[in-house]
Amino acid sequence: MKVLAMVALALALSGTTARAADPRYPNWPCTQAKVPEISLAAVWAGPALDDAETKWKNDAKITALVAKLSARKTPMDEAEKSVKDFLAASADKTTNAKLLFAGLFDTLNAQRSQVMNGLERVSHKQREAADKIREEAIQLQTLQGATPRDEAKVEALSNDLIWKTRIFEDRNKVVRFVCEVPTAIDQRLFALGRVIQQEME
Amino acid sequence: MQAEVSEVMRWSRCRDSAPPPPLAGEVRTARGQISHILRAALLGALALAAAPAHAFIAYVSNEKSNTVSVIDTDSWTVTKTIKVGQRPRGIDFTRDGKFVMVAVGDDDTIQMIDAKTQGVVDSLPSGPDPELFVQDAAGKTLYVANENDNTVTVIDLEKRARLGDIQVGVEPEGMTISPDGKTLINTSETTNMAHFIDTAQRQIVANVLVDARPRFAEFKHDSSELWVSSEIGGTVSIIDPKKHEVIGKVVFEIPGLRKEAIQPVGIGMTKDDKTAFVALGPANRIAVVDVASRKVTKYLLVGQRVWHMAFTPDEKYLLTTNGVSNDVSVIDVAAQKVIKTIQVGELPWGIAIAP
Question: Where is the signal peptide (chain A) (predicted)?
């Protein structure tokens, strides 16, 4: 019976998202409403990027710097300093600033989409896992109530349920944690965009 | 499945290896205090020469760093960072200006900060997980929305005692009270409705359907309209509070911005009821709305994920909390321009300004 209580608790807790689901994105597991992509207008108040949106990829210096700044293992202080140093040493500051931001915008947006897609896939699979656990719990109840009781089967199914529930709970925890990643990316892009715009002035 | 999980795991590990963000608010405190002292000395010296401009004090709750940042509206700096309970969100002054009340959801209580000593001195008996609260015009009764148990707790502010609970049946989210104190409005994310509660009977008397995920409600000062923002619906519904009907909607459109990014939450209205300001969340903008025509006249770029706001008592400035960029934007109300950004703690949520 303990197994069934554990299963019930795990399923009950998984359902306690504080907010009602967004009908547009039924698999979105996070509290904040989903914004599928960052719009340029949300993070950039500088001049139009024009052809910088495609050209940044052709500039080896820019692509290298973009890769470094986009990696969240690069501390923000260091990232901001790199932006300032790079732009200070640039002959054409405005062009380089636009190229750099265009690169960051593309790269961080792509990173963010990847994480969000991953979150939705896992959340979808979690729902399927929850259904499966529910099904097996009912089977277990039936087996436990049967006469004569097949102890070997009861034990095998109990063990299976314990494992499935544990994996389910662990993944739920990971999802809650990863839900903060898209926001962290928003934050980084906005902060870097702000430094670039300040340096352009 | 394993591949996806390892993908998200990889992300969480990346995050782990990054150093923790600096506690901006706390670092600033020391500097803020110094500048506060200097400024006080300067003001003292200049007091005879010129009358200083009115300075106000703003209190900002930082949901993630479990602190309240104190901002001086004269120097526009953080002068103190007060440690409070877990997950501070709703924040307001008592009407006499002596205390700041802050709902600390994870500690299941409302803490009271003495505005003079700027330290926590007492707490109020809310229900579990209080998110926000409203008080009547006289400042005698406080209504607290408890996120987790579908109730609104009624508190006598003078006695600091619990008077009772109102069963609202649904998870309360936004809350406001009519200027005459007779009607309490409670918005619910599960029903997508604004529920009208009679404060004398403590019962729901009407329900009005609005767009998805209603977050915030605000009455016009003349009580003729109730504005309710819908975070997922992306609109503000205007309700006739007598007929309990939606009589209009404010819609938002920002060129180059995805619709999903427009998530209206906080609403602020000038005392003359002519201009409304609506915070649009991850659109990173405040919409300026002409109340009469219900049309947006301007969008102001502030910080990231703007939710709540407060006017200075002279209505010269409007301060907004930007939860993701961890700052507060200062808007010059007459000029309709952002004039300043102030870094505060992590995840700034609510804001209250001394009366």
Answer: 1-20
Q: Measured between beta carbons, which residues in chain A are less than 8 angstroms from residue B18?
A: 72-73, 75
Greater model confidence, B22 or A157 = A157
Predicted confidence at residue B169, as pLDDT, reads 65
Shortest CA distance from B129: residue in chain A: A18
Cα torsion for A145, A151, A153, A157, to the nearest 10°?
70
d(Cα A12, Cα A115) in Å, to the nearest integer?
A: 26
8 Å CB contact of A125 and B4: yes
Residues ≥6 apart with Cβ < 8 Å to B86: B66, B104, B105, B106, B107
Task: Determine, yes or no, domain membership for A71.
Answer: yes
Taking CB atoms and an 8 Å cutoff, what residues of chain A touch B300?
none
Q: Give the CATH number, domain containing residue B225.
A: 2.130.10.10
pTM (two decimals): 0.84
A20 domain residue, yes or no: no
B154: containing domain: 2-353
Compare CB distances from B189 to A20, A35, A187 and report the shortest one's residue: A20
Give me the residue from B4, B18, B325 closest to A190, CB to CB.
B325
Q: Which domain holds residue A97?
A: 53-200
Total number of domains constituting chain B: 1
pLDDT in tens, B124-154: 998 889 999 999 999 999 999 987 778 899 9
Q: Residues 29 to 58 of A: which have CB under 8 A from any B CB? A: 32-43, 45
- Is B21 at the interface with chain A, CB within 8 A? yes
State which amino acid sits at residue B25: G
B73 phi, psi to nearest 5 deg = -85, 5
